[in-house]
Each structure stands twice: as C-alpha cells, then as structure tokens.
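Following up on my earlier thread - several people asked me to post the actual chain instead of describing it. Fair enough. Here it is, all 249 residues.
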Amino acid sequence: MYSSISERAVSSQWFFDNISVLLRRLYASINTPPVLDMEEFFPAHRQILDNFEAIRDEAVAIFQANPNVPRFHDISSTQYRISDNDGKNWRMFLVKSYGRLIRGNADMTPTLTRFLRANPHVTTAALSYLDPGKHIPPHKGPFRGILRYHICLMAPDTQSDNPPWLAVDGTRYPYAEGGDLLWDDTFLHEVQNPGPNPRIALLLDVKRPVPRLFHKALFNITLFGGWVYTRVNERSLRITTSQPAPENG
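Reply from S.P.:
Thanks for posting it. Predicted structure:
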C-alpha cells in the first residue's frame, strides 16, 4: 500500500464488507441486467445532457481552482482498497450525499444543484477526477437500492491509442465526452485511465423504483443512516479554498 492503513480503517472495512453482503442478500429478489435503459429507469438523464456544457464547465473550474480535492479514501476510509491502490489519485467532489446537499460545494455547481433540487430521487452526486494512469480495480457496490448514473465530462484521451474505459460485468465501455450510462452498482465494475491526461465524470446515485414495501423501507433506513453520517462529517466534505494535498506514502 502507498499509505499506512490504520486499525480503525481495517475495522471499518470489515464492518462495511459484512453490511454489503447483508444488503445484497436482502435485495437478492431484484433481478435486472447490469446496464439499464435510461429512458425507463432514469429519464431525467436528458436534463443532464441538455445542460452538459454548463455542468462540465463547473466541474473543470472546480478542479482547476482546487487541484487537491480530497481523494476518495480520505473521505471514506472503507474505499482505500480501490482508491489508495496504485499511487495515483482518485479525487471526489461531493455535491450531495445521501439526500443532503453539501453547503458550499453546492454553491459552486449552480447548474447541477438546480437539477438535484428538481430531482430529489437523485440521492448522491459527485464529481470524480482520475489522475493520468489511475486504475480503479474491479469491485462491487453494496446496495441494490440505488442505480449508478455516470456521464463523462472531460476525457482528452478518448481518441488516442490508449483511451480510458469503464467496464461493467465484463463489458468494456470506452469513454466519450457526453456519453452516459446507467448501471447496477452491485455488479463487478472497474475503470482505467491509462493516458497522459485526467478524466472527469459526474456520478449520480438514483433511487431504484421497487414495488415491495420491505425494499422501500430498507432504502429509507439506509438513506437516513447516510444522511446522519453526512451531517456529522459535512464540514470535512466542503471545499471552499485550495487545500494542501495529503501526502502519499
């Protein structure tokens, strides 16, 4: 590892892994493909496409002004295995987390924030920045109660001989600026940005429509727990000025 892993982080990872297994079992009766039809499950994606340039410009401006946005494992220690794995940075600028807008951050993304206010079924929104050469190894999300929406905002190397890509359940999807995808986060997925330029994407968690009251209740319980965590840690999630980078090593 490129950074020391504390006992607290290891304990958190053990708890996260076990909760993930439990959540997957509780949602086992839901049977949808890895990649889903956006028109059926998330028609609001068209609003993102209609405002693509404004959202992209907001994202680029944030990372230019704040190059040391926290890495994913700085925000959530349970993500160290996929974030702190190769000495390259995966930075996350959270705009909304478990239904709660991050004050200050949301002010820096007015176009995206208007979309989020108009679409409360989008529970989490983050701008994801990958260093050149960054690899996010294969992994599964814990919670089938949400669907993951992903749109590439900036990827200069898409036309190169070594373009970035996203893979879901063994199928590779090359990046294209403005290209979007909706998938079930509990299927195995990975990302590679092998070229010399960074990649910026918008990630959204979208509430999955479910008929069973049990799954609806489980979603609300999970969302509330995440909302409380976000409220308690909100100050550490805000980016108001350029910050010094945590050192690798």
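The two ends are 8 Å apart (CA to CA). That should answer part of your original question.
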